[in-house]
Design a protein that fits this description.
- This protein has 266 residues and is mainly alpha-helical.
- It folds into three domains: 9-85, no CATH class; 89-132, Orthogonal Bundle (Arc Repressor Mutant, subunit A), CATH 1.10.10; 134-260, Orthogonal Bundle (Tetracycline Repressor, domain 2), CATH 1.10.357.
- It is built from twelve helices and three strands.
- A hairpin with a 2-residue loop joins strand 2 and strand 3 (67-72).
- The longest helix is centred in the middle third of the chain and has 27 residues, at 79-105.
- It is elongated, with a radius of gyration of 25 Å.
- The termini are far apart.
- Mean pLDDT is 75; it is low at 1-29, 43-66 and 68-77.
Length: 266
């Protein structure tokens, strides 16, 4: 008996039935691309508690984003959850691979075919996720920016003195600026450091630092001859110099000098 079918809804285009596999089939794992394997193991484990004797006899293999993976008859109850987990894993692998390739070889040297090969997926699968290399790089940068914003927000929200939290945020921002330039190319920076998402991120960082400065001002530990808005701009512009500094020690000295300019006048 051979089962052939499709999945309707959001999974359509990513999933198509391709046949039967025996329980625990090694062939199923072998057919899966590298990003699928962790997902495959977890999806089989999730489906196990729902199997009954009737469904145990039949295991169907479906192609997920171009890769054949086996699942139990009970897994469709959880299909939306597992397909989304798989998509996230494939997308993460694409972003990681692309950023590494562009950093190593340069923006103009990387092709969609190369990305697909290095990621371990088919070109058709890659094009389901992104139309071109530039789109992948924008997604990479958005992920980096989101991670930086989350880290800065965590430092702002931690317990402790407002001045200490401000120092932690400025230190982290300076190190982000430093390593951003160390781990990219000029052409890559020119491509990704533009657009609305960058402007929004810069505004969020400005607001975060301004709000912290306002808290410090309320304790009397901030100079009162300049408004927090202006001081926030001063901090951001001063710390952009971290990009050209040779070491983390130099970056920390820059932060120390910047903080000195925020203290109350004698």
């Amino acid at each position: 008996m051979r089962v052939v079918g499709t999945v309707q809804g959001s999974a359509a285009g990513d999933v198509a039935g391709v046949g039967l596999l025996s329980a625990g089939s090694e062939a199923g794992s072998a057919m899966a691309c590298p990003p699928c394997r962790a997902w495959l193991a977890s999806s089989q484990a999730v489906g196990a508690p729902y199997r009954d004797k009737a469904s145990e006899a039949t295991r169907v293999s479906r192609t997920v984003s171009g890769c054949a993976v086996p699942y139990t008859a009970a897994v469709p109850r959880l299909w939306n959850q597992t397909i989304e987990a798989h998509r996230r894993e494939v997308r993460r692998a694409i972003l990681d691979t692309t950023w590494a390739l562009v950093t190593e070889h340069g923006l103009l040297s990387v092709t969609m075919t190369q990305i697909a090969e290095e990621t371990g997926i088919g070109r058709a699968t890659l094009y389901r996720y992104f139309p071109d290399v530039e789109a992948i790089l924008f997604a990479c940068h958005q992920r980096h920016v989101s991670g930086h914003l989350q880290r800065l927000s965590e430092l702002r929200d931690q317990t402790g003195d407002a001045a200490e939290r401000l120092e932690a945020v400025l230190q982290a921002y300076a190190l982000i600026s430093h390593y951003r330039e160390q781990h990219g190319t000029e052409e890559l920076a020119a491509l990704v450091h533009r657009g609305e998402h960058v402007a929004r991120a810069q505004q969020q960082i400005f607001d975060l630092i301004r709000d912290l400065l306002t808290e410090v001002a309320e304790t009397g530990a901030l100079r009162n001859d300049v408004a927090p808005d202006e001081l926030a701009s001063y901090c951001l512009h001063a710390l952009t110099a971290a990009a050209s500094l040779p070491s983390e020690a130099a970056v920390r000295r820059l932060v120390t000098v910047t903080l000195a300019g925020l203290r109350p006048l004698p």
